[in-house]
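Sharing a chain and its predicted structure for anyone who wants a worked example. Both blocks are below, sequence first, tokens second.
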Amino acid sequence: MNRSKDEWAPYAVEYDPLKIGSIDGTDADVHDNGITRALNAKYKPNKKVIGDPLCTLFIARLSPQTDEDKIMKTFKRYGPIRQCRLVRDIVTGFSKCYAFLEFDDEDAAKSALRCSFNLVIDEHEVFVDMECERVLKGWVPRRLGGGFGGKKESGQLRFGCKDRPFRKPYSIEQNDSRFNFNNRDKYNHGKKVDFGSGSDFRRTGNANRNLDRNWTDNNSRHRGSDRNTERYRR
């Protein structure tokens, strides 16, 4: 995560909760309680999870009515599927609207990932990404304050993922010359202005016209106010 400017990338290669909570991956201070929880969490990937993580896709924002058969039917065009696990509530058995889909080989998984942009299943536009738990070093799930994505209303957005990639860090050195106050020649049309001595101060033609225009506008407002006052007095 500690990249130089030349090594910037929109996606995280290691999960650092402090950086993931920043829109450009440069924050040095904690700004929400979820990040504090994620920093203090000691999470280890579930060893009981089977399958090849490099061949596994994470599918979210599913319809509550979508089942495993529908998911497999949608993705089988990209290659042979080994297994599909739709995550359900352990009490109610209802779908939690996300699933994990494992292909037989990595190429099929990558092909499905590339072709799944704006994919709609059961009238729901789904989100597809690679599995993070066993692939991304330092991963912390959402329930512990980490994860990726999120809603603006929650105040706990997480960046560095396909859903919300990092923005390129702003650099004052790369900014245009509009903000370079050391070189004011173009604002003065090539005329040097000495701000150090009042007697030598010379305004440009545009500056004088702006001052005259402001003076005229102010006087017009005052005259209008005076007329209103006289009208009420009568």
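Comments welcome. Confidence is low (pLDDT under 50) at residues 197-201, 229-234.
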